[in-house]
Amino acid sequence: MAKIVSLAEAVGDNVRDGDTVAMEGFTHLIPYAAGHEVIRQGRKDLYLVRMTPDILYDQLIGVGAARGMKFSWGGNPGVGSLHRFRDAVENQWPRPLEIEEHSHAAMANAYEAGAANLPFATLRGYIGADLPKVNPNIKSVTCPFTGEVLAAVPAIRPDVTITHAQRADRKGNVLIEGIVGVQKEAVLAAKRSIVTVEEIVDELNPPSPNSLVLPSWAVTSVAHVPGGAFPSYAHGYYPRSNAFYIGWDEIARDRDSFTAWIKENVLDARPEDFAKHAGSKPAKAA
Question: What is the pLDDT of residues 97-127, one digit of tens each?
Fold first, then answer.
């Protein structure tokens, strides 16, 4: 059953050097506070997995915490490139980065296969695409019933999945509302999981439309971190900070400005600092 603990304790207990780590959240509920705690605790040699890596993974890559990344589309949404990601791939700074690129559909199916404890996923995809030419983990299988040739990719089975959500009850059941990506599948596929939440409540109350509940038995640790998805948004709590995403482009272009930002806003900061963003208007990155 899930334990309700501090964020520092959740990361300390569940994220280990060398782990395969998935931090999921689709456009909103991206677990920034938890990612910052991973950086503060000095985790290294992580293999990062995410369908749409954006600023959070740019930060983890930029501090040298990652040895590799499996992903589908990587960029600063609505702005452009992830400059720390590019620097690692193009210049091996601060360290070389192994990359494995997939389509969104392949990643989603791979998480589902992992959640079902299957070794691989099959899908009708990659037809006419070039990714199979550069990714040896995209293969094909022939259906034994119809003879149809399908794409096949390895299941995603993270050591730990980290997500953010709106609420958890005191038993550790978690409610996710709004746009639902692959959070459920990513948690079920993982050996361990951390969920940060905006609120701890006595009752989750009837779930709203387009919501899901992660049962306590599927979650390892729950941490109360209001504002923990900033600068992404938490449906019903606070909006996305478009100004932050725009401001990040300039911060991340330069190694020195990036390092200074990380020191001030991550290394010298605390999870409680995110609370100022809960229910607030969007703030600027700098």
Answer: 999 999 999 999 999 999 999 999 999 999 9
Token reading at 251: 């911060």
Asked whether the whole model's pTM tops 0.85, one would answer: yes
Q: Are strands 160-169 and 174-176 parallel, antiparallel or unpaired?
A: antiparallel
Residue 24 Cα distances to 94, 180, 186, angstroms: 24, 10, 7
Tokens of 40: 């503060």
Q: Are strands 160-169 and 20-23 parallel, antiparallel or unpaired?
A: parallel
**What does the radius of gyration of the chain's CA atoms come to, in whole angstroms?**
18
Phi then psi dihedrals of residue 194, to 5 deg: -125, 130
Closest CA to 29 of 166, 214, 202, 190: 166
In angstroms, rounded to a whole number, what is the distance separating the alpha carbons of residues 242 and 231? 8
Residue by residue, DSSP assigns 151-188 as EEEEPP--SEEEEEEEEEETT--EEE-SS--SHHHHHH
Residues shown for the chain: 286
Q: Are 20 and 154 in contact (CB under 8 A)?
A: no
Residues 121-172: tens digit of each pLDDT = 999 999 999 999 999 999 999 999 999 999 999 999 999 999 999 999 999 9
